[in-house]
Queue: 2 jobs
Job 1
Amino acid sequence: MITVLIPAHNEQESIKATVESVKTQTRPANRIIVVTDNCSDDTAAIAAGAGATVIASVGNKGKKAGALNQILSRILKDADDDDIFLVMDADGRVSPDFLAIAAGELADSKNGAVGGVFYGKPDKGGLVEAMQIAEYVRYARQVVRKNEQAYVLTGTATAFTACVLRAVASGRVDGTLPSGPGPYYDERTMTEDSYMTFAVKTLGYQTPSPARCWVSTEVMPTWAMLWRQRRRWQLGALENLRSFGFFTKVTWRYSFKQLIAVCELIFFAAYFTSLGMSLASGTFHVMPFWIAIGGIFWLERIVTARKAGPKAMLIASTMVIELGYSFFLKAVNVYSYYQVIRNREISWSLGPGK
Amino acid sequence: MYGPPTGGIGAGVLGAGTVGSIFAWGDAGWLLMAFFVLAMATVAAMTLIPRKRAAMRHVGPPRA
């Protein structure tokens, strides 16, 4: 049995298309449940009109995680261990054979969850949107090249088996996993999907992310919104790393990536400082060897953006725009690290696991 | 939703190789930086090598 769970908070603009994308699956879902969470618009009526079962959350203060916990607490007790639950965002659209492929993968008991490969919805023309679309395409390429294993079980769409969700709940009680409010999803973490990724992997399961299980999602339309989103992602990642432990068999790769990102930051700053100094002192000159090395990065940017279309390749070929975008993302990281050091924003709320 | 912590492999050092004069060979700091840039360049070069062709065919944003 396959159940699709769609938590929704004021999603009247997108919920119909989301439900439609689930209804047209090659392997149909048995149930499509839209969990309306503190909605003040017509999400419930539109979702019901599109054919979904609508259940409202009650007194939920745990946002998306809280809404999911409420519905899972209600329906999971009647589920068989191999029943499948696809949890997806209300503004996402899944590929037509998502459920069929996910069900096939989850038939293998070593797979605990199947994450979608996410893409930005078609470009609306803005630079900030185009950059995110290219970034997502590069990320998808990276995931597929790494044996189609998910780096993060994206909140946009991930399928779990009932037994894995139960195992997560048990782990949160017996101390195998970091504890916190909520039986399944942690309601205090800023990024519940990264928590779930670490949890499923810590329990010993694999997390495939097949290329054909794609999901399209909204990209941030402004730089300010992108800043807030990425800040939340970064702080959430650090928070979850801290709660699970920075150097477990699951988390060390994620910690290593953070370390690489810090190195990039330091060298990035050193590079531009020294460039400025060499220009100012008149010692600047070009060396063919390093031009060639720069050429590798230039080529990598263009080639990896290929599937995002000619516009993305053109942007990548200028290098300057890519550098600016990279600067932006690094500035988010710097600010996030600063906040962690100052201990202002990050909650460090989860109790330690074993 | 949560994405990769950085903007992509090599993004942070994109263009770092275009000015070689900044590397004063013999200085430990610059050698370390040069090593890092070369390591990242190797990773970037490896991402250009075609792999898993069957699955890669499905990589790409959905059409509207």
Job 2
Amino acid sequence: MGLTMYQGRNPARPVSVVVVSGNPVPTAPVAGVGPPKSNQSGAVSPTPTTTASSSDGQGSGNTNAQSQGEAGQAGGVSATNNLPNIYFNFKNFSYNNLNLKFKFSTDSLNSGSTATNTWQCDPSIKAGNANLVGPAGCLTPAYAYGKYFYELAYNTSITNSTFLLTPSFSPSYAVLVFAIANTNTSGSMYQDFANLTKTSSIHKFIAADSTNASNDIFNFNSFKKTVSQDGATSQQDIVKAIFTGGTLNSSQFISSLPASTYLDRAGNKINIISINPDQTFSQTVGSARNQPVTAQLNLYDLFPFNGYNLPTNLNNPTAPVDFQITQGGSTVNYKNFCLFFVEMRCYMSQTYLNVNSNQAFFETYVNGILTSSSYLVVDKTLDSSTLKNYIISLSNKTLPGITNPNNKLFLFDYLYASTYNRNEMEIQSRNTVTSLVSKYKNLLIKSTSDLQIADSSKSLAFPVKFSHPFLNLFLSSKTV
Amino acid sequence: MNVYYTGKILDQTPTGLGGYTGLVLTNSGNFTVTYNAVIGDTTLYKNGNTTIVPSSDIKNGANTNTIFITEDILANNVNDSTLSLTVDPSSSGIFYVLHRPFSEFTAGNESTGYEVARLTINTVSSAGDTDDPILVDISGQRVYDNPSPSRIGKFYAVKSYSEATSYQLEFFWNTLSPTNYVKRFVIDLSTDAGFTTVIYSYTGDIVLGNDSDKPRFGDYDGFINKTFSAKLINLSVGQDYYARIRGFNFDNEPGPYSYPTGYSYNNPILTPTGISGLFEAPGANLKSNASILYLSKTDDYEENFNIYDFIKQNNNNSSDFRFYSGVNIKFNSSSDSLAKYIATTVNSGGMNFVVPNSDNFKYSVNGNNIFTIELEFNNIAVLGRGGEGVKWQTNGTFVNAKNGGPCINFDAYVYDSKPIEFRMYKDLSSLFYGGPGGGQGWVVTDTTTTDTNQLKIDGAEIESFDGFDLRQFIP
């Protein structure tokens, strides 16, 4: 018989063994590379054996698998004698984006700013009535780690339904920086992350004359997925993310497409409308103007992270430190704080199927990781020369039937740019995010100055799954 | 027809030095003109009387040709009494009248005086026409009393450091004028701006030439084409230094002081006051401000990389960094893929800073008394080595799993009570993973009554998370 065991939290190398008799044994957890144990230091000593168990009862056969000894601790910062002072941060990077079509920022906020209902569009980039406006006082200034930003009140939107832009086939990108936070103290980090993403109607950028354009667009969804491993099954929280922005997101270009059960494309929106969206699907739909039309959407998992869990205190190098936000003179400690840098890219490519048709590609990158990609076939003969009205909206809303007023949505930056070719678009989009990460680096490390990760006797621990994806640190703590 | 007649008085030229006067011939006609110049014999009288100076007083020449002409004052063997100059219409040509140098003499030597010669220039155009000659009576004066030196210019200092010579200042300067006749330069170095105490005076003498056709000192244009330099070594790092320079003539009379600008590199572009020698006193403070050593490293793969070895190699393999208060290293990959810095043992980090015991690593510090090592990561993966898993022994016991190795391994090195501080700055893609710990061992036991054998399985070892994105890892 065959038995495959995964070495605990080390997913990179499955260990295959053959047992001469008996039944399959479920995998037992092994502390391989997870967060350091508080009672561990240096090499570990043997501990009593642990009998493996199975969550679904399939381990009740004729063999027992017992773990022996404890796993070693992951490496971190080290030195042959005392540790030196080591500081860590993101590089400074400034990028002068010359192709912006509109831009919203919180740069002008300061300690004297008060609640408002208007996020002003930078008039030097787009003049006219381009501000995003919501209910009175829906935008409240907030402050953390040297930066000011807005909180958007629960169940509200700031919108401009007369946002005039010139539709363009040119590659374009929108970048939105926002954060979701709450003060939850219970539940696993994964459940917390899934809970945070219940704030799922956040961004809309769509042609005003698209079908159902005035309806909410949902960008996040989380659901439990049954995962089978070694005969055992478990439920995991899976999060999907789709953000779409650009003038291609318009019925002027995109012919009418049927909706799927969980994803709304009827309104020419690549948009989650219900729970359990398809993980991947490919669908050929009917024709428009006697041309073959296809559409495809691929969704990828958005892996959890949480700035809250990042330790910053050398006196307690493994303890997570709350994310602190000051509003109205009061400081609130958030147990969960996720900062999202979302890139919404779109570009056109001629399809080989018909010279009159192009494929419009839409891609979502969340914190540098691709979470959705899709294409729709569009008619490139349609007019793109005149101004068109778009609806642009930022919201703090949940999926229908879900309430979650404890989730706080914070807005930092929102911009849109058009470029000449796809390569330039990709470079500019990433440069923009890089500069915004540099701008908000002190929020990512929860420190107003470079984060000290080691002093003469201690170093911090960085369990990678808990810190921000752009940080990408995995180090254990060390005490000299 | 007319004879064009004029006179020209040459600049005074101290004995032993060279001098020249340029003459410009302008062709304002419609045809190319060839000018054939001939200078006649010189008559050189001793100063104050009508006695002719003997030929023996003339360096490599006769007393009848102490004035001569040339098109190139810097050419060797310039000894022309004739030359031919062809000038296009509406153009000009230039040639020079020079003093033949005198031999060495001492005070009281009578070989000073007045000299006269006639320069005759005949012209012929390309059409074959000729014009009357141009006659120029040349007169000159050889003087024994040296003119006072004028201001020295282009005076600047270049700062540098080496382990052999410690902090050093290399000065550069120029006489600015062909008639700035100096025999000696003196640079004063002081630690105060008022030059209250000159801690060192450098004296540099003009070297006697050995070309029989040239003036005894310098060239026919004096020292104008020469950049002088002097290097002062073994100076103290962090000490205030001020310098000034002046020239002395052959009568040991000083010229005015000039003050330097300071640079840390060669061939700087000088300011107008730096060029003219009018840079305001006391000049630049030439203190050694310990600077940052900027380095970059572009490689795609390194094992157990030691930052100390790298910066030492880039410091002429010297462990003396006292000219620097810090190092900045930019790590880059050569492609879109992550460059990997990998530890091959758990005793090493993916990136290390380890100073061998045999090395005396010395450095300066910044205003906070710290030597800073800044590390900038551009698309770099730094990976520790994984620890071994539990190992079963033949006697049925097991050896515990080992911890993973460090991602970064930096010594807390201290020189002269001055600590080192590390600052690590990453881009979006760079990652830092410690070595994964070794896994637990396993015993698989058949619980039936028919078989009591146990299967003992060693714990797993993962060498590193090379190629694995931990951000996409859900435990």
